[in-house]
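Q: I have 383 residues here and want to know how they pack in 3D. Can you give me a structure?
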Amino acid sequence: MKRLLYISQKPHHPIIDGGSQAIASFFHGLLQCRDIALTYAPICTKKHPGDFSAVDHSIQLIPLRIDTSITMKILCYAVSAPMNVLRYSTSEAMSTLYSRDSIQQFDVVICDGFYALTIVPKAWFVSKRIIYRSHNLEYEHWKQRARFMPWYLRWFYKRISWQMKRLEQSLVGAAHAVLSISHEETLTLRKWNVNTHTCYPAMKTKHELIKGKDSEPCVGFIGNFDWFPNVDAVNKFIDEIWPLIIAKHPSVQLEIAGRGSEIFNHPQHRIKGLGFVDSLENYYQRQRVMVSPLTYGTGLNMKVLEALLYGKVIVTSKISVRGFEHKTPFLIADTPQEFADFVLALLGNSDQREALESDISAYINTTFDEETFKTQLEQRMHG
């Protein structure tokens, strides 16, 4: 029986973004693994306080409450370390972990997300089996954010990215094993740690939940609009691609869902900004085609994966699907005209759409198989 400590950089519930969705999938996968005694230590912040009311009482739960406010101490230390990491690593979380380990003496520590990895005591990299689950290349995330900043902040974000890369490379290299959620990023992480493997989330198809079609043709995009690439992608889609679609198919409706999507509500252009939707089943049932025209992003796009789970055909950019090893379920467009043509073809050809939906179900059942995920995870923990 392995004594396992699972540290997640966000709580697994409620699911409010792609990161918490990925953590929820991993947490529920862990519960299926054999011969482990699980202690769950989610990092809880003001933005992500967590809801643990449904966690089984057999699981040891130690929420790590962290105030991520920027203090003078953090600003002083930021000369030599990334400020965003210091908000976590200068907290009391590390002493809490030390205290709990003195009682339970953990064998294996799984760090789900980079900020979870930064609060692990350094001595544990020698005395315990540390498994890092990478959601994305964190330094690349900050490098991309710099592009969206005003000129007077750009240098600061680039500095964070530079500092982050050094730290990320060091911690990844010290881990015993790395599980990458993105196939493409596995190739980079493997240069830092040879024991790196792609480990997709375990998922079940939900296609059967949305049987039936709405009579009104709809095209959908869903995402959290606190995330800057989503705002950028939708603005470009509305400006460059949507006019090409509406010119050929005037009755089609664009439905944009997710927190903050209300800003895109333009009924006169047949665009609905729905905000947060209570029922994903109802939303996906209305969509004939999903789109994901991102031009920036890291890791595995969880909203693209979610659409696949509901059996939806997706027209995407190359960036939107960079984390997927096999691109067969996707229609990948390089130009606005090609993007519009793919959407129009799917709106007008139900046979093509249904054939692709059948391929998607087979793809999900093979690539994101729960038993494969569990076997791979148990090998890393017990190996």
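Q: Anything worth noting?
A: The chain has a mean pLDDT of 92. The chain has 15 helices and 14 strands.
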